Amino acid sequence: MSAKIKSVEEIENAKVLFLNLKTEPFKVMITGEKYQEYRDISKWMNSRVFNKDGSSREYDYVKFVLGMGADKPMFISKFVGIKKVQSIHKKYSTGFEVNFDNERYAVCLAEVVYSANLNHPYLR
Known about the structure:
The chain is mainly beta. The chain has a single domain (8-123), classed as Roll (Archaeosine Trna-guanine Transglycosylase, Chain: A, domain 4), CATH 2.30.130. The chain contains two helices and seven strands. Strands 1-3-4-7-2 form a five-stranded mixed sheet. The radius of gyration is 15 Å and the shape is globular. It starts with 15 loop residues before the first strand and ends in an 8-residue tail after the last strand.
């Protein structure tokens, strides 16, 4: 288990993948119930997955933000890796569902090590 961090400044020299989330995935990921974030295989995601020479990018953490802006709910999880998956059909405790058959990237996560702004109106 990784140690929790007390502030974002503690990871300022770490390699961090930044991703935005919508409300429903955010709610099940902050609790640790959903530990993979699925993304379409696109030019934008490829630029996050691979270096210009084609080698895989490595990250220490993934920072997820609900919306955009410094005052928005966010959390940081330990990065485990990125892999390609397909045919995922899963329903979470909140009723949120992930359903797709095509191939996508799965950003794999460990525990949440930091969170902030969780009392924001976006989560009510």
